[in-house]
Amino acid sequence: MEIIRRELVYIVYYFTVQLRQIAGYWILGMVIGSLVSVFAKDAIHGAFGKIRDKKWGVWGIIPASILGIASPLCMYGTIPIAASFSRNGMRDDWLAAFMMSSILLNPQLIIYSTALGGTALAVRIISCFICGCAAGLLIHIFYKNKPFFNFEGFEPRASHDTNPNPFLRFTFNLGRNIRATAGWFLLGVLLSALFQRYVPADGFAKLFGESNEGFGVLMAATIGVPLYACGGGTIPLIREWLYSGMSMGSAAAFMLTGPSTKITNLGALKIVLGIKHFVLYLAFVMIFSFATGMIVNLII
Question: Domain for residue 234, yes or no?
Answer without folding.
Answer: yes
